[in-house]
Automatic annotation (TrEMBL):
Domain Metalloprotease TldD/E N-terminal: 27-90
UniProt organism field: Qipengyuania psychrotolerans
Lineage: Bacteria, Pseudomonadati, Pseudomonadota, Alphaproteobacteria, Sphingomonadales
The protein's name: TldD/PmbA family protein
SUPFAM superfamilies per record: Putative modulator of DNA gyrase, PmbA/TldD
InterPro entries: Metalloprtase-TldD/E_C, Metalloprtase-TldD/E_cen_dom, Metalloprtase-TldD/E_N, PmbA, TldD/PmbA_N, TldD/PmbA_sf
């Protein structure tokens, strides 16, 4: 796999080619990925995968017109043809008054922080196989598990580099490791399946694979022989594994492009107390070894640690260059780039601060409610905030877990759900978006 210097050199050359062919401005982003994955099932090796890929994307501007194109052909003639084609496409594109690059004074300029994104450790396929076997063995050893969908272990590395014609040229490397296991419990039509997984930047930060396997087995067995619930309004408690999705909906609604398109349920609610005043939601792109840590965004703008929600209110919109210009706002360091296309918006590591009570105390006064462990379906309307999703989980009776439930739907509106949200004190920081156990009163549950 190429190193950062090689990726930067390719980007510099491609930007220079575009400028020489008539582009007024240009930027290029290069990515390279390498991964090894080992999968096992029923104690036997099932698959060994090794993948490696490189691509480079070029965006050019001719006046207010722009075009974007990407390739995996790094031969000089291929890159020359790519640049020529991009400039020709831009000349025929419609004008966009908001398109452009970040100004020189808005770009990241300083020492690159050491975010500990790259683990120097090399993990060979034999070690990955042992980890995958250990995870699956531990899952299958849980009483009640009847079959397996397998265990896996993965090691990966990536390089990203960005160069703009306004003088920005930076890149960095990162690594990633993961374990997972998925098993089956029950027989016949009563079979249930579930999984557990964990990812980390550094191999040493992963828990023992047997721990992941036991979690997978216990989650699966806990789902056997589910029943439905009586329909009605009741408290709903979200397991941290699924509760992070609620923050994902919030962040999506805070996106500058969504606000510019008037397609966000938060539009007009900038000064409204959407959450209890004690709720704080933080974004930290500088979290050491964080899964989404980064020093700068997809347009070269510096990232910053910031609250997304404070004193119950959102703190503003998350912008890239185009949405900032359209809304008349400053840049917030949230541009996201893939190889081709215009930048979108994404947040870095986010978390909702922990509350003061344990999960057991959070549920103690619930006479009849639902603890959600799984969600499915896409019933979230980001324009209106209406929320309706299929769910599985555990019934709560008199503050205690009282057996698995399935074939139910939970519904509400996201603004109402945010306002009714109460966090427990069990926050753990190992996901890209982290939340503690969350309780939301007054949701509608549709069951039998």
């Amino acid at each position: 796999m190429i190193d950062t210097d090689t990726a930067l050199a390719r980007c510099n050359d491609l930007v220079a080619l575009a400028r020489s062919m008539g582009a007024d401005a240009a930027d290029a982003v290069a990515r390279a990925d390498f991964s090894e994955s080992v999968s096992v099932r029923l104690g036997e090796l099932e698959d060994v995968e090794r993948s490696e890929g490189e691509e480079i994307g070029l965006r050019v501007f001719v006046g207010k017109r722009s075009a974007s194109i990407h390739t995996s052909d790094f031969e000089p003639e291929g890159l020359r043809a790519l640049a020529q084609r991009a400039v020709e496409m831009a000349r025929h594109a419609p004008e966009d008054p908001y398109a452009g690059l970040a100004a020189s004074e808005q770009l990241f300029d300083g020492e690159m922080p050491d975010l500990q994104l790259l683990d120097p450790a090399e993990v060979d396929p034999a070690a990955l196989r042992e980890a995958a076997l250990a995870a699956e063995d531990a899952a299958r050893a849980v009483e009640g598990v009847t079959n397996s969908n397998g265990g896996s272990a993965t090691s990966s590395r990536a390089v990203v580099a960005l160069v703009t014609s306004h003088g920005f040229a930076r890149g960095y490397s990162g690594s990633g490791f993961s374990y997972s296991a998925a098993v089956i419990a029950g027989e016949g039509s009563g079979m249930q399946t579930d999984y557990a997984s964990r990812s980390a930047r550094f191999y040493e930060d992963l828990p023992a694979p047997a721990e992941i396997g036991r979690e997978a087995g216990e989650r699966t067995v806990a789902k056997v022989s589910p029943v439905s619930l009586p329909s009605g309004k009741m408290p709903v408690v979200f397991d941290p594994r699924v509760g992070g999705g609620l923050l994902g909906h919030l962040i999506g609604a805070m996106s500058g492009p969504a606000i510019a398109r008037k397609s966000s349920f938060l539009l007009g609610r900038e000064n409204e107390e959407l959450f209890d005043s004690s709720i704080r939601i933080i974004e930290d792109p500088f979290q050491l070894r964080g899964l989404r840590s980064r020093p700068f965004d997809g347009e070269g703008v510096p990232c910053a640690r910031r609250p997304l929600v404070e004193n119950g209110r959102i703190t503003g919109w998350l912008t890239n260059v185009a949405s900032a210009r359209q809304l008349g706002l400053g840049l917030t360091g949230h541009a996201a780039r893939s190889g081709g296309g215009s930048p979108g918006v994404s947040a870095s590591n986010g978390y909702l601060e922990a509350g003061d009570v344990t999960p057991q105390e959070l549920m103690a006064d619930i006479e009849d409610g639902l603890y959600v462990t799984g969600l499915f379906g896409q019933g979230v309307n980001m324009v209106t905030g209406d929320y309706s999703r299929g769910a599985t989980g555990i019934r709560i009776r008199n503050g205690e877990m009282a057996g698995p439930v399935a074939e139910i739907t939970i519904a509400g509106s996201l603004p109402d759900m945010f306002r009714a949200m109460t966090p427990a004190n069990d926050l753990e920081m190992f996901r890209a978006v982290n939340v503690p156990t969350l309780r939301i009163d007054g949701m509608t549950v549709a069951g039998e």
